[in-house]
Amino acid sequence: MGIDFDLLHKVKGLIECPEPDKDIRRFDANLRLFPPFLDNDVCPITIKNTLLQSCYLRNTEWACGVAVYTGNETKLGMTRGVPEPKLTAVDAMIDKLTGAIFVFQLVVVMVLGVAGNIWKDTEARKLWYVEYPTKGPWYELLVIPLRFELLCSIMIPISIKVSLDLVKGLYAKFIDWDNKMVDQETSTPAHAANTAISEDLGQVEYILTDKTGTLTENQMIFKRCCISGTFYGNEIGDALKDEDLVNAVATRSPDVIHFLTVMAICNTVVPIQRQNGTILYKAQSQDEEALVHAAAGLHMVFVKKNGNVLDINFNASVIQYEVLDTLEFTSDRKRMSVVVKDCQSGKLFLLSKGADEAILPCASTGQQTRTFSEAVEQYSQLGLRTLCLAWRELEEDEYQEWSLMFKEANSALVDRDWRIAEVCQRLEHHLQILGVAAIEDRLQDGVPETIETLRKAGINFWMLTGDKQNTAIQIALSCNFVSPEPKGQLLLINGKTGDEVRQSLERVLLTMRITSSEPKDVAFVIDGWALEIALKHHHKAFMELALLSKTAICCRVTPSQKAQLVELLKSCEYRTLAIGDGGNDVRMIQQAHIGVGISGREGLQAARAADYSIGKFRFLKRLILVHGRYSYNRTAFLSQYSFYKSLLICFIQIFFSLISGVSGTSLFNSVSLMAYNVFYTSVPVLVNVLDKDLSERTVMQHPQILFYCQAGRLLNPSTFAGWFGRSLFHAIVVFVICIHSYAFEKSEMEELSMVVLSGCIWLQAFVVALETNSFTILQHLAIWGNLVAFYVINWIVSALPSSGMYTIMFRLCRQPSYWITMFLIVVAGMGPVLALKYFRYTYRPSKINILRQAERLGGPILSLGNIEPQSRAFEKEVSPLSISQPKSRSPVYEPLLSDSPNAIRRSFGPGAPFDFFQSQSRLSSSYARNCKDN
Amino acid sequence: MSSGEGSSQPSSKKSRQPKYSRFTQQELPACKPILTPGLVVTTFILVGVIFIPIGLLSLSASERVVEIVDRYDEDCIPSDQEKTAFIQSDKTNKTCVRSLTVPKKMQHPVYIYYQLDNFYQNHRRYVKSRSDKQLRNPENEDLTSPCEPEARVDNKPIVPCGLVAWSLFNDTYGFSVSGMNLSVNKKDIAWDSDKNYKFGSKVYPKNFQQGSLIGGGKLDEKIPLSEQEDLLVWMRTAALPSFRKLYGRIEQDLEANETITVVIQNNYNAYAFGGKKKLVLSTTTWIGGKNSFLGLGYITIGGLCLFIATTFIVMYLIKPRPYGDPSYLSWNRNPPGN
Asked: How far is CA A481 from CA A447, A448, A461, A616, in A?
């Protein structure tokens, strides 16, 4: 509008904007500026005038703006949605079991209530010493059931909630405290914002991960190149340090110089001179930034951009180029070009860069492109992004002629994109291929190993990325997302119309169904557009696909689609974990059962919205396998134990009521009952938070063991039935032994009650001890100290004359028969439990048991398919063998045909590196074909 | 239009880097016992070996106890009369003479118990019907609310109130051996704690058994509650429907084959509810009265432990099972994900 800089802060006006909504494609508002700037003229403001939250501004030092929406009213804030309160599977199971116990309690109350009323009418009325009135009040029939309700109310342990909250808090603290999850670079510790869902970490079945910034560092670095047949950077892994290349630059080898020139100027990068002399490059694409940086590293420094004139500083001499036209990159063309004029010589050049399939076919007829395509192949095997660079000198006439057409196409109103593409193609031919540049979007440390380990643990991975398909697949391959070829297979779903998508979907489904019985690792790849159609029109088919497929790569998806996919998996009853680092992952993170945020380059939005935030992706392994697994195991024990102890005391009350005229007398006094739940039984089990069934190392080596947690093997109705049975058995043991050894002249109420109570406490201590896998000093203190504390507390209470149980405990402790009774209870109660446990442990061992035994025998054993050789293979140099392999382009347009004869052969073992690369090359090439053909 | 929180790196977190300690890293040294055959079998054998002698000791102690049990409720009532009417009447003569033979020498002190069967002292209505505060302190005389329905008579508080006291057992026994009276020591039959604390020495019975319904025994209003030891014993309610309560002690030895004549005042109404009344004379040992349960229990459990241990040894010999064999880890053959 042409307002002076000085006047900016004096601008007054009014913006009429709609109510906040979440549509990021629309913004229809009006702006009125007050005089003297504009006389109440209404200027329309559209989405083009807006900056959305969490956007980055590049290529400008400043911008003026007005905040229209803030906080949660921003478009992003509105899309974020309201996070639902999260309930872990374990909690849900505990709730279910509580419900079952509640029903059981009601049944008990009903049965005993009816029995009590019958007994009262038949027997109790004869007991003159009870003086039942002949005619009671109207609610008389309810009195006995209600008494039993009171008596049985301890059946549902209230203490479980308190104990669980305590231990969950501690699980979260353990995560916060964990030194092994501190990102040393930024010294960011892991943090558990949600303290309530640690158990779910151990039950994760699906991990939905963002790509950029989550799996990768989000830093592109130029690593290798192949210039006219010569490979640079292969030996040391970094072309910039390759002496051959440095020498070639020094000797001004023309191919190399051209290559560098294309790297430096075939882009839309804007250099910004900073005050200290360094140059900051601002680029839309990080690839371009990487190339420009690399060129600068090789003394071809892109210094300045004045309008269309570019200043290149090469070995202290300045070369100027004028950019005449920019043939922009589109995802269809997969290449971009610039037409430049060398200001010195006035010559015109076309400089192009792009994907190999977009550049190599345009090569001049005479040129051999085989070395380049081999280079592309080799680099992509290494997980590098490749760009082919090419150039051509243009004749003045040719350019002038073309320039007119280009201008015309640019101003076309109909089919402009298509026409521009067509015009561009007229110029981009007979290119001289200069070479291939390989750029690494470096994976974060340990990503392939982490994914490999977690996949072995039975966790399925879905990659949801806003990035384009090729990049997504590249990264998926390089980080073990998909197994190498004989085992792994990629199926593409695409199409622009409903029918195409349907056909594609059906074909993939068919393949999936056939291969689902085989030990194959099939992944599907879908883009956002097809996903939209699939979710809307073919929801059922897509659901089936989601159920069948363990791996999926979804590219070009929007934040809300990410959330939709999470929702889809959740509706299939899967436990989902979403991990991401940026604002666009927030919804997915909130939607999933567990949201993990990476506090990385893209800010802390994801980390703030997440339940857990970690510094690097690789910590996910430890978060799930160590913290999640331990939390699950511990909670499984703690919750069932809580039920066990409450049921135990309740069963005893029920038994006692059977011999007390079904009248609802409580055997225990109220103090003991309260202390039973609060002190005597809750302390030992709380220390269970330190229990470790297997060492962290063993779990890391055998991630498959997580299966026990995922499938909920340690807390389910049948394990609960075991605990239920145990409490019934123990109640019978305690009760029968006590009433027989304390019969007749000893059957005093207070005494018997304390004998029974101490019998229960002794059993508790031994049950906890038997179920504890690793005893630290704290556990010993808690278990045995608690037993001692029980006596100390009761001695103290017995010493108080005002208490009901005055002198009782002292009397008991003096009786030999008391101690004899206790030992009898312990042995009779624990003997069968120990025998059964030993039998199972030895003859029906679970995998956990075997690993414990192995651990004890001296060092964990290595299972087959250890991940070590593979991960190392990545760092190793490509063996020359694999390069000279004839191209194994097995065309797999129809996925069904791709069953290679050696499909069963394992790719692990001694020959791993070679085998691995070969197979991967076949995979990458096969889907490259897929991409093209589809 | 906030642009980029990326620059605000988590500098605040730097200080929060966790400190190392073995507890926070969950690295406390731990011992991980595993159930090896050796450990388990040894445990069972050890328990068995310890338990059987203890069982034998307890059993022999219980066997040494000499006990005479005589059920008299049926015989002490004329068979031609209606039982409840007989026992409730004031006019009937309820004296009853029984003779007991001493099977073995009984060393003093010989404890005299009365045993009631099918008497629910643990019934909720009954157990609750007492006021401990009232029993302790004369000032709390009026605290009779828990005592319903035996709380007040003519709106005057009953001391001691409640069903428990009201139903006080009131049969009496007189013993003689060959014409010589055996003195019964009724001192110190109640718990010291009850005498010294629970029942006040200044609390005297008041309005006791004055109501329309007469329950059990009466109390001498001149003697404070703390010295009414029969009441104290009775008010230690029994947890089981069949119980014995101490009546007194005979402080002299009873020789074998002596005949003891017991004169029973059969006052207490156990007929209405089909209860049984028994008189028990018993000696005692370190384990208490005659109760073979613990001894038998120990021997049974000890035997079972040895049996289990043997079974495990046999199983181990027949079918040894290598521990921690990796071949059982069949991840690859049978991927757990399916």
From this structure: 10, 8, 7, 17
Three-state DSSP class for B110?
strand
Give kind and range of the element (H or E) at residue B194: none
Determine the distance in angstroms separating the CA of B196 from the nearest CA of chain A, rounded to an integer. Answer: 10
8 Å CB contact between A336 and A326 = yes
C-alpha distances (whole Å) from A436 to each of A170, A249, A289, A698, B29 are 53, 16, 16, 44, 56
Q: Give B325's pLDDT tier (boundaries 50, 70, 90).
A: low
pLDDT in tens, A708-721: 888 888 899 999 99
Mean pLDDT calculated for residue range A213-224: 82
As a whole number, mean pLDDT of residues A209-217 equals 82
Percent of chain A predicted with pLDDT > 90: 21
Distance (Å) from the alpha carbon of A218 to chain B's nearest alpha carbon: 13
Ramachandran assignment for A874, one of left (phi > 0), alpha (psi -120 to 50 degrees), beta (any other): alpha
**Would you call A664 an interface residue with chain B, using a CB distance cutoff of 8 Å?**
yes
Tens of pLDDT along B105-146?
999 889 999 999 999 999 998 998 988 888 888 888 888 888
C-alpha torsion sign, points B129, B133, B138, B142: negative
Cis bond before residue B149 (omega within 30° of 0): yes
Instruction: Give me the residue label for tokens 């001894």.
Output: B295
Q: Tell me, what DSSP letter sits at residue B19?
A: P
Strand partners, A440: A221
The string of pLDDT tens digits covering residues A3-37 is 667 777 777 788 888 888 776 667 778 887 777 66
d(CA B122, CA B300): 31
Element (H, E) at A198: none
Report the pLDDT averaged over residues A818-827: 94
Would you please indicate which residues of A are annotated as catalytic (active-site) residues? 210
Closest approach of B309 to chain A, Cα-based (Å): 9
- A388 has pLDDT over 60: yes
**Gyration radius (Cα) of chain B, Å:** 33
**Dihedral, B11, B15, B21, B25 alpha carbons, nearest 10:** -20
B5, B37, B236: residue with CB nearest A748? B236
Residue B242 sits at the chain A interface (C-beta within 8 Å): yes
Tell me how far apart the alpha carbons of residues A638 and A780 are, in angstroms, rounded to a whole number: 17
Tens-digit pLDDT profile for residues B34-55:
888 899 999 999 999 999 999 9
Least confident of A616-625, A911-920, B72-81, B119-128: A911-920
Pair of tokens at residue A291:
């190339």
> What mean pLDDT is reported for chain A?
81
- DSSP assignment, residue A324? E
Scanning every residue of chain B, which has its alpha carbon at the shortest distance from the alpha carbon of A173? B24
Strands (E), A216-256: 216-227, 230-232
Residue A127: its chain B contacts at CB < 8 A? 120, 123, 272-273
Residues 7-36 of B with CB under 8 A from A: 8-10, 13-14, 16-20, 24-26, 28-35
Q: What is the DSSP letter of A537?
A: H
Report, in angstroms and rounded to the nearest whole number, the Rg of chain A calculated over CA atoms.
36
Kindly list the domain boundaries of chain B, sorted by start residue: 36-65+287-317, 68-283
Determine what percent of chain A is predicted with pLDDT higher than 70: 87
Contact B278, B70 (CB under 8 A): yes
Sheet of strand B172-177, all strands in order from the earlier edge strand to the far edge: B95-101, B259-265, B172-177, B180-182
Kindly indicate the confidence band of residue A867, based on its pLDDT and cuts at 50, 70 and 90: very low
Per DSSP bridges, beta strands A576-580 and A206-209 are: parallel
Written as six digits, the tokens of A613 are 């935030």
- A57 against A801, higher pLDDT: A801
Tokens 């402080």 correspond to B251
Cα separation, A639 vs A635, in Å, equals 6
